[in-house]
Every structure is written in C-alpha cells, then in structure tokens.
Amino acid sequence: MTSRRTFHATVCEPSNFEAGYWPLTHFGAPELGVWQTLRHMMDDFSVADTLDDLPKHIYLYEVIIKFNNPLITPDLLSPGPVALLRYLKRAEILTHDVCEDYVKEVQSLTKKGTGHTLEGRKFMAGIIEGLGYDAIEYENELEKEAYTHLAKYGLGSSPGDNSLTCYSNLRPDQVELAAPPKKLNVRDFYDIMPIVFMGLHSSVPWKIEFLEAGRR
What we know:
The protein is an alpha+beta fold. The chain has seven helices and eight strands.
C-alpha cells in the first residue's frame, strides 16, 4: 500500500468532512489547492459582488491518502465524472458505446449534467474501481502558476519542491487527516485576486479596476 502526504484546500469547514472526503476529491500541494480554491471564487465573482462577498476563510487539510494502483491521467482540467469518462474513451479503456451509456447515466444524476454530485462521483468511482484502479493520479498543469504567486505565503511545500502531482480518492476510507486543519484568511490573498481573476476573464479588463477598488 502506497501512502502519500498531501493536502486539500477548500472553503468547507471541518464539520463537512465528518463522514470523510467525497470520491474524486482533489489533493495536491497546498499551493495548488489554495490557487484552485481562489480560482473557483473568482470564477463566480460577478459585477454585483465586492471582495467582502467572498468566503472569509480557506481551510487547508493535511492528509494521508493510500492507494495501490492509481489510474494515471493527463490534466483533464476538470476532475468530474464526465471528463473522466471522455478520457477513458480516448485512451481506449472504454469503448465508445459503453462510455456514452455511462455518460448518460452519470448526467442523469445531476441537473447540470456534469456528475458533480455525491451520487455522480460514487458512480464514477465505481467504474474506475471496476477497471482495477483505486485512485487517480495526474500532473496539475492548470494550476502550476500557483508557485509563482503563492510562494511568499509559506503554505507548506518544501522550498523548490514545486510538485504538480495530484491525486483523487475513490473512497472516503482512503484518506485520513494527518494534522489539524489550517484556517487561512481570504483577505490575506486580496493582493493576488486580480491576477487570479484575469487568468479566468481576460476579456473583461474593467474588472481589474473593480477588484482594486474592492480591495482598498
């Protein structure tokens, strides 16, 4: 059994994890997790919002994840069930017809059709386990700029490590908390919010002025 020390960053408080971590939860270096969380915040940021409308804290959970035979994938940009199914078809692990049947089934488990529900994730985890794997491993290219912008915050990675390796569990019992969670103030990251936002919405530069005004 392989054990990896890794991290999960989220705005969810510890009480949300009393029953364990959902299947397909994202784990990786703390910088990658915090950057991803900030990106999710800015992705939903609208013209009617101010920075004070954002969540007040990010929780950083240090965990141990255990697995034997991970499914190695490229960075799919989305860890959701539908993206995973499409990859399994491209990799010829699933046939076209089987993949499309699974896609229809997993899309039926959520209104938006992505499978990003507990039921959708459990369904996808069952498919991957049925193929003989017990986790997912990939190199997180999407969030690699995190090390450039977050190095000064001392979030936990060893200096110069800059690892992009990330994991997703298939079952809650694969993950155990290794240390008390850290509670980070979102306000401490306000100085890089414009950078995060422009990485997502480069077509609306006027938002930079808005963000700068909200930060003061």
